[in-house]
Design goal:
Elements lengths: L1 H19 L5 H7 L8 E7 L11 H7 L3 E8 L17 E2 L6 E4 L11 H4 L4 E5 L10 H15 L2 E5 L11 E4 L14 E3 L4 H10 L9 E4 L10 H4 L15 H14 L14 E4 L4 H11 L4 E8 L8 E8 L9 H14 L3 H7 L5 H7 L3 H7 L4 H6 L2 H11 L6
Parallel strand pairs: 1-2, 1-5, 2-4, 5-6, 6-9
Antiparallel strand pairs: 3-4, 7-8, 10-12, 11-12
Length: 408
């Protein structure tokens, strides 16, 4: 009995320490401070289902009931306000049936990719609260900066409610964007995996003059987040920001294999229960392929034989399922290139040459990788190790460049 009482007392003593160390999201820090930054202002909110707090309450509802704050408009990036629009599909402005507020599409016909002056006419501040993936090709960070530029032009304040980088804030991988290849899937001169929170990236966009006129920027920071934390280490609930990023590990898989989808030749699980987590083809030997990838010895990642059938496929796919044993330190983008190497070594098939023979357009592949250098390396037959090594100087330079914008 005495031991039970001591255990209870110990839990009660430790509980405040645990709560005190719990990560607070930018939306929670804002609310705890009485939404001071937004008092007396007409607010537009750029968000989607991922804009929630620990209790899974939408920032839309938090701002609607906040005293002194007038939420007047909603803005939606790719995948829409509800996060259910497929990738690359444009959608129009509409009225939100639940709140009656206008929803302005920033992925709409025209194409509209940033707020227009008319959208901002009755807005004093635009608030950004979207969970991104930490990967340059995910379009939310493009929308972030383009909206900053529109707000600067209209003299509208821009407020970022900061969120963790789900890949961790220490991981920097891949080639840096060549400005000649700017697009929705690569707008800012950062590596493919850039290791910044959205608030830090907003500071860098302003500070590096990547938009013509800096905006009036406020970042409401996280509390108790540390750079080495990947999403699962945060203890935060994961809400899918788009249809193919359903789980807390999905950003890791997206960064690891998303690029392969632009080259073709291998199925990366879109339309299966494991988007980006499985890689296969009808002509692969799953056991041999997985064994070959494990023999490469990539740190913190293992491969298991798998057979899967995406909903739009007539044939089953045989290949490998990816498992991370060290989420914080395993390489990500490198996996795509070692998978290509494994296919060539085990089957004699060169995915790049097959795409070339099929007259596939490489425009999107170049945009996603951020230049034509990677494609040229594949054309020259360079190995995965050589391609990965070619990124090192750029990664080191970016680590130095980003230093003054770090908040954590």
């Amino acid at each position: 009995m005495m031991r039970a009482r001591i255990a209870v007392l110990l839990v009660l003593w430790l509980l405040p320490l645990v709560v005190a160390g719990q990560i607070q999201l930018g939306d929670e820090v804002l609310a705890a401070d009485g939404c001071r930054e937004l008092q007396g202002k007409r607010v537009g909110l750029l968000t989607n289902p991922s804009g929630v707090n620990h209790q899974l309450e939408s920032t839309i509802d938090v701002l609607r009931r906040a005293p002194g704050v007038r939420l007047v408009a909603l803005f939606a990036a790719e995948h829409g306000l509800s996060g259910d629009v497929p990738a690359g599909v444009e959608f129009p402005n509409r009225l939100d049936s639940r709140t009656g507020l206008p929803v302005f599409s920033l992925y709409g016909p025209g194409p509209t990719r940033a707020p227009t002056p008319a959208m901002l006419r009755n807005v004093d501040a635009v608030v950004y609260d979207i969970q991104d993936t930490g990967c340059r090709s995910y379009t939310f960070i493009t929308t972030l900066g383009l909206t900053m530029a529109a707000c600067a032009a209209a003299n509208v304040e821009f407020v970022v409610l900061d969120r963790p980088d789900p890949l961790g804030g220490e991981r920097v991988e891949g080639p840096t964007l060549d400005p000649r290849f700017r697009s929705m899937v690569g707008q800012w001169e950062v590596p493919y995996i850039y290791g910044l929170t959205c608030g830090e990236l907003a500071r860098m966009i302003n500070g590096e003059h990547w938009i013509s006129k800096p905006c009036r920027l406020t970042v409401v920071p996280l509390k108790h987040w540390e750079r080495g934390m990947v999403w699962r280490a945060t203890g935060l609930p994961w809400v899918a920001p788009s249809p193919n990023i359903p789980q807390d590990d999905s950003p890791l898989f997206y960064a690891a294999t998303g690029l392969l989808g632009e080259l073709g030749g291998l199925n990366i699980g879109i339309g299966s229960p494991w988007p980006f987590q499985v890689v296969g083809a009808p002509w692969l030997d799953a056991d041999q392929f997985s064994r070959g990838m494990n023999q490469v010895g990539l740190y913190g990642v293992r491969f298991r034989p798998v057979t899967f059938r995406p909903f739009n496929s007539v044939y089953p796919m045989r290949g490998a399922q990816i498992y991370f044993t060290d989420r914080a330190r395993a390489p990500l983008l490198a996996i795509s290139f070692y998978l290509m190497d494994a296919v060539r070594k085990l089957t004699g098939r060169n995915l790049y040459l097959e795409a070339l023979a099929a007259r596939k357009s490489f425009a999107m592949f170049d945009k996603v990788t951020g230049s034509d250098a990677t494609r040229q390396a594949l054309a020259a037959g360079r190995s995965a190790a050589a391609i990965v090594n070619s990124w090192k100087a750029g990664e080191a330079a970016f680590r130095q460049q980003r230093q003054k914008y770090l908040l954590y």
